Amino acid sequence: MEYSNHQGQPTRESSSKEILKPQTPSSDGFHLPIEITSNILSRLPVPTVLLFRLVCKAWSHLTRTDSFIQQHLENFGKKEKDYGSVYIRNDFFEYTLFYCSNGHFRSVKIDEISPEWFYISNSCHGLVCVYNQDISIVTIRIINPAIDDNFVELPDVGMTKSKVLNVCLCYDDQANNYKAVRFYCSSNGKGMGIEVLTLGDTTWRQVGEIGEIPTGFTDVVQFASGAMHWKAYGEKIFFFKTTEETFGFIESPDVDADDDDMIMRMRKQIDLTVYEGCLCYVTRHWHPWKLKFFVMEDYVHRVWIEYVIDLMKMDETPFSDINGFDHCSEYRSIKVQRGKFLLDNSPRYESSPKKKLYYYNPKTESFENCDDTQEKGYQYKESFVSASKFCNEEI
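-> structure tokens emitted (395 positions)
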């Protein structure tokens, strides 16, 4: 069928594609509401979203907004496969940060030649902090290995020139900002000082000092209930609250209430971890088949709930093929990942011990095999929070 225009010239009937109107501000290039598009993209891995940015300008703009970055933080990471790992490798004093997640692998060089070791502290919303312990030249750098090409070096104005014990990144949900917390040896060498830098500021500020250094300060920091935690002397737990910037000690649970054997009490070992968002205190008695762990379900009133893992009661336990008290006593808990305990039963006294890693799920009281690669490095969750937004000086 043909029609005539106002000049009497014949025209063809417009096709369905020709009569579609251009996109409106509330929709994207594929005529989905922006809210739906954002919800879908926010559940995908970072490398996948980076590819989708090439589809159209609307998606490229959408995935760069602050609202999408926050939505991605909330929606991504709910599946076991969403987590990856980061670790540092030293090749003749050339330090490289490696990141692997969702089948993607990247490496970013930290330093060409450095006389000091670089350490990785933790990751926070995709940001990773690395630092050295050189007293004269303190170097603290941050990066998001999923999206950043270069490290950002934090300023040293106001920083105490002393040996670094640990540097941690944390998020203050009340002020909606990120902080770097530096722990260093006090002048007498026995105590510990604390100073904080809000990312984006130029000056460190002193918070205070304590007269002792927590024994587990080289362990991975544990975040729970708005605070960071480490093991301390006398079976206490040291904490630092990220919003109030206050610190102190928490009494550990009475793990020996039913244990009259003083030798067993003295040989006890502990781990700190986080279970379902709560601080978790794990005891490793040299008991053949038992493990205790305590969950602080009420952080304000310091209420610990006790749980016991009895390996002998588990069906098809992977530890059932180990005979003898000595081998059983080597059993230990490493950390909690995605609601399950990662257990290590490697023989300690073999010259080249073979890792025997298993997941234990307290809810189902079941074991799962764990690949060695899942234990390597620090657990990492991707994000679009870029280190470059806080500083202008890139390395």
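Residues 81-214+374-395 form one domain.
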